[in-house]
Write a structure and sequence with these properties.
alpha/beta, 8-stranded mixed sheet, 11 helices, disordered N terminus, disordered C terminus, binds guanosine-5'-diphosphate, binds magnesium ion
Length: about 280
């Protein structure tokens, strides 16, 4: 996929010894202009570093996705983009305004609901997030919704009470829809570097995060943070955010990511060999 290739081509963080070994081996092989059928080692790298992650297809109804992360990382925006993707795939979508701290946060989600044709469950600002989520689960079941995307507040991730609240939300979801949440996603701002890695640790320890969405890779961010996160937390990257628009979300393609990391100047024709 061309755009994510371009986005990650600036990645430079190569922390693993065998990546260096791979590069040394390539150098020893001399001045090969285009990579020959080197797919096997690249495949191994991809699996070792990043895991093979398919874009998850909802396999239950409702498919419930809890979206977490600190303030400003792009949770609400990402939910809007995800809603658009699911709607385009013909799925009915319900957004749940679980970030009740600010009226603006609820309104922002309402705008995305209108834009994507999703339904919305909201309460007044200041409402108990668990109560909103409870309403959301009931509505999803009653309306036979395919996909539920739950927005949450992201203040002060270092304070345990936010984690307590999110755990409570997880329990409410599980009580109303057995097996849910099917995904607990963590949104991280790629421009925050080490901070993002710290957030990944905090949230995954508290909530059992099942996937990461790395946002703001359209700026000066270096995609290499994805490798550090994967290496240090073991959590798969699901999507990359590459802008503020509805279309600016890419499923994470570990294969192309690794290729871009190792071979940023590989010509397009040579790249096709790896597809
Ligand atoms: N450039 C860029 N901006 C983004 C991206 N994702 C979100 N944003 C912007 O980041 C800001 C915070 O996003 P928001 O969704 O409100 O974050 P939240 O507090 O986590 O819900 C907004 O101005 C978004 O438009 C992205 O992938 N790229
Ligand atoms: Mg928000």
């Amino acid at each position: 996929m061309e755009p994510s290739w371009i986005v990650v081509a600036g990645a430079a963080l190569v922390p693993l010894g065998f990546v260096a070994a791979y590069l040394r081996a390539r150098r020893r092989r001399g001045a090969q202009v285009a990579p020959r059928p080197a797919a096997p080692p690249v495949d191994r790298l991809r699996e070792a570093i990043l895991g093979v992650v398919e874009e998850p297809t909802p396999s239950a109804r409702p498919w419930v996705v809890l979206v977490t992360g600190v303030n400003g990382v792009g949770k609400t925006t990402t939910i809007g983009k995800l809603a658009a993707r699911h709607a385009a795939a013909g799925r009915s979508v319900l957004l749940v305004a679980g970030d009740t701290f600010r009226a603006a946060a609820i309104d922002q989600l309402a705008v995305w609901a209108a834009r994507t044709g999703a339904e919305l469950v909201r309460q007044a600002p200041g409402a108990n997030p668990s109560a909103v989520v409870f309403d959301g689960m009931k509505a999803a079941l009653a309306r036979a919704i395919d996909v539920v995307l739950i927005d949450t507040a992201g203040r002060l991730h270092t304070r345990t009470n936010l984690m307590d609240e999110l755990r409570k939300v997880q329990r409410v979801i599980a009580r109303e829809v057995p097996g849910a949440p099917h995904e607990t996603l963590l949104v991280l701002d790629a421009t925050t570097g080490q901070n993002a890695i710290a957030q990944a640790r905090t949230f995954s320890e508290a909530l059992g995060v099942t996937g990461i969405i790395l946002t703001k890779l359209d700026g000066t961010a270096r995609g290499g943070v994805a490798i550090a996160i994967r290496e240090q937390t073991g959590i798969p990257i699901r999507y990359l955010g590459v802008g503020e628009g509805t279309e600016d979300l890419r499923p994470f393609d570990a294969h192309q990511f690794v290729l871009a990391l190792l071979e940023p100047d590989v010509p397009a024709a040579a790249r096709a060999q790896f597809a």
